[in-house]
Every structure is written in structure tokens, then in C-alpha cells.
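Hi R.,

Here's the chain you asked about this morning:
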Amino acid sequence: MAQNVIINGVTYQNVPEVDIPKSGSGTAKFYDTAGADAASGDILINKKAFGASGEITGSMANNGSTSGTISTKAGTVTIPAGYTTGGTVGISSTEQAKIIASNIKQGVTILGQAGSLALPTISQDSTTKILSIS
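And here is the predicted structure, written out as C-alpha cells:
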């Protein structure tokens, strides 16, 4: 954030940073961090940043890639707290193989697969008490 800076009684307006030459070579850069609101949990573990109150060492876990498979109806995959580079979670191939049209009742769709299994009709004749399945 740009600020007005006074150096030797001279006001400089909208200064985003101050560079001061170091003895020898190079410069020291100073930024206004008054508006910074990051906390250690917002920064990857062992990385350093500077905020409104000075240096902050990160504590957020770096989990890398996260993945998993779901193999039951109520199955879940827990994604740990922290940073992740992404990953995939999907239904296990064993369970995917079961989700075919002939295993699903006609008129029902499961996970995008429409069923084709026709169930038999059961009826009872009221006079002879005979069940017929067709």
C-alpha cells in the first residue's frame, strides 16, 4: 500500500516502498505492512513472511497431492487440513464395475447410469389364490 513518507522534512506522496543503499553494495527494501493480516497458519510450514507485527514463520502443513477412493455407499475420503496441490477422489474400480444398466432397476439412474433391469410383476387371482409371476 502506498504511503506518504517524510525524509529530511520533504514529503513524498504515494510511496509503495523505500530502497536504502547498503554500505558496500545492494539496497535494503522496506514495505508498509500495516495492512497485512496473514497469520502463521496461512503460510506454509517453515516459510517466512513479514506482516504488520514483523516476521511470521508459517505453520500450515504442506500435504502435497491428496487422493483416495470410495468403496462403500457411505464411504468418504478425509482431506487433511493445510495446503494441497490437488488430487483426485473417485469411486473404486471394483464398485464402478457394478454400476451397469443390467444391475439397476429400470427407471432408476445411479451415478449417471440408467437401469435396464425389468423386474417381474406379481399378481394374485382373487378366486383361485394362485400367484403368477411374469
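One quick note: The chain has a mean pLDDT of 90.

Cheers,
M.
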